[in-house]
Each structure stands twice: as C-alpha cells, then as structure tokens.
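Notes from the pairing session

We agreed to fold both candidates in a single pass and log them together. This is the raw record for the first candidate, unedited. Please don't reformat it; downstream parsing expects exactly this layout.

Candidate A
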Amino acid sequence: MSKSKRPDSAHAKMRGKVIDVKTQKKKLNSFTKKTKKEIKSKEAYELTMQEIDTLMKRGESNLSGKELERVRILAEAAEKYEDSHDPLPLPESLPEMIRMRMFQMQLTQSFVAKLLGVSDTKFSLIMNGKQKPDIYFIKAIHEKLKVDANRILQSL
C-alpha cells in the first residue's frame, strides 16, 4: 500500500492549485495597509462623513462585504481625525467623571452605588452635589472605576 502525499496544514488543494496560507496572509496584510485612510483636512473629513452617511442609509444588511469594509476603514479614519482635531473635553467635576465612567462601562447608577459600597441615596446626593464624598468613596472610585487619582484630587 502506497501512501499518497497530502498537503500539510499550510497548503490546501483547490481546483488543481495549491494555495499557500502564508501567501494569503501577506496579500491580506498588504491589502489592509493599502486601504488605511488618513484624513488630513476638514474638507476630506466632510467628504468621508458624507460617504459613510450614504452607505449607512442603504442599511447594513444591504451592503456587500467590500462596502462594509469600506465603512469600517472610513469610520476609523474619521474617528482618528476627530480625536486629533476636535477631542472631547475631559470632565472636570467628580460627578461628571463618574457619569463618564458609568457610560463607558455601561453601568447603572444602582450598580455603581453597590460597587462603591454606598447606598443609592448617598450616591445620588453626591452625584447631585448635595453631599461631599468621603475618603472611602473617593478611594473606591479610583480602585473600582479606575479613575485617575490625580484627576479626582484636582476636581475636589
């Protein structure tokens, strides 16, 4: 009984052609490098946003794979431009910092109160500026919500 040669895991036969997985990865990497878009002006940003809007109006389910990839690339470029040219202001007060972290982490007020070890009422009073936070509350914000301690101290 003779053993027939089988392609190893890096190769596969398709219609008489051997496809090298490493070659395919190289092609994919070169494609993604070529398709990275950088926005350098306000006009280019506006055109990019118009193209994203046009594609998204058609609906995600009605877009081809190439169009979805194009939207992703354009959105990443627009986000990078926005971050460098028009960054969002950082919150200055402690309640604003907490609200921002709650939004980022998708947490409810009740859950955050329990996480920080305070009652819902006390948390509400602190968030509305009617009660000053104690050191335990501030420490919990730093440890549990990962808010920078220097920013917390500057807000007090």
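Candidate B (folded immediately after A)
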Amino acid sequence: MTARFEWPVRVYWEDTDAGGVVYHAAYLAFLERARSEWLRALGIDQGALRDTERLQFSVVEMNVRWLKSARYGDLLTVTACVARRGGASIDFVQTVQRGTETLVEARVRVAAVDAGSLRPRRLPPSVAALA
C-alpha cells in the first residue's frame, strides 16, 4: 500500500438530512473528493489527463461500511490509500474519521477508461508510476 493521503472536510447543511445528520450519499462524495485531491497532490490534473491522454476514471466497485454518523459542523478527515494497482485499475482503502473515531470504511476500485468510448484501458505510465 502507498502512503495514506488525508483530506479535511467540514460538514455543511447541504450534506445533512433535516436532523443535521450526514446523509449516507454525502459520504460517497467525500470519498470521491479525497481521491481527486490525492491525484492533485501527485501533480495529476484530471481535466488535462482527459484532454491530453483521453483518460478518465470510473468507479466500478465499492464496498462501504457506515459505522457512526457525522453531524452538521463536524470537521472530518477523509483518507485514501492505494491498496493495489492493476494494469487498468486502482484499488483504494478509504476512511472518514472524526478525530480518532472511524465513521466510515470503504474499499473502492476505479477503472481507467477511454474518455470517448468509456471502455477500459491501461493506465498510462505517468499515472501507473505514481499509484
């Protein structure tokens, strides 16, 4: 596994239900943003990757365990760690934490796909070397 990447997120009203509890789908957005910020931290601009390499990523598998709830105003840390890199995919282990408390655990597989056809394709060497 690679080093653990951490990204802070504050819970806003738009992330919650009427009771101020984070709606389950909001966690998926938090996980997505952490993976995107991980790429950005590695110097990979997804827009440029799409335009120059004709490559983008698509989530093809996800297993999520919701353990505890977050609430409006909480400061969370969302992590991303590469567990495995295949020829055309990357498997991540991710968490959402509030302090030392783990709220969500996820395993996510993203596939590299051709930006036009959305068919699977191999990771370019520039990305494979970093993942």
